[in-house]
Backbone:
């Protein structure tokens, strides 16, 4: 569906520059909710080529700023990879926010790490990143 | 608090490269929940300098990939600007996801645009961006 919009299907476009397209979500969380996509078919954030990272997120930042200029008190920027990802074409949501708008945001329940569990997670992630910026004590 | 971590306060660091630092959220949505921050004090996404955009979001992408390598089915990447922003230092959440994990994600109620309202929003945003990629019919 997003490749169709890139190819010219109807949409309320807000930005079309180089490799990036942005348009209104047709079913917004709040009016002004924008989706920002690379024009080439990139399935998920994990697949995003380095060359598109700056253009995509520069567009996201500019749109977040534009929404504030349109009167929003702030914004919520998010992207789902695989789980909860409704369309298999990378899209970043930029949603205008207003205090008291009812979006629960990050007020989901949080969990606690048991002893040693946090460092075990950190070590596993560092291992996958092939870096180890925090040597063991 | 994040400037303190940049300066050396205890944290479970997962990545420390150039201008970017990433560490575990101490109160995660799910274990493995990472926060990615620029080391310099950037209050919000809207304030992010161009020179930090690629490093910050390249780190986010690499961490999302590492979480999948650690067994996650996907990830949720998000940042709050001003509204719901708990710490006034830009931080991007990278949260490991598993199908059926209970995170409601984007299943918040959606709204509908009334006739003409979507194009009015798109025009207002385009005006603020100083671009008009979609001339009126």
Residues:
């Amino acid at each position: 569906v997003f490749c169709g919009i890139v190819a010219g299907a109807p949409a309320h476009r807000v930005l079309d520059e180089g490799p990036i397209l942005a348009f209104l979500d047709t079913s917004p969380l709040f009016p002004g909710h924008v989706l920002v996509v690379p024009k080439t078919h990139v399935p998920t954030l994990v697949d995003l080529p380095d060359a598109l990272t700056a253009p995509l997120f520069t567009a996201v930042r500019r749109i977040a700023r534009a929404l504030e200029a349109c009167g929003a008190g702030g914004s919520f920027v998010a992207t789902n990879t695989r789980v909860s990802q409704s369309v298999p074409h990378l899209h970043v949501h930029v949603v205008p926010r207003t205090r008291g708008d009812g979006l629960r945001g990050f007020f989901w329940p949080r969990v606690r790490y048991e002893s040693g569990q946090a460092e075990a997670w950190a070590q596993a992630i560092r291992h996958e990143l092939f870096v180890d910026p925090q040597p063991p004590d």
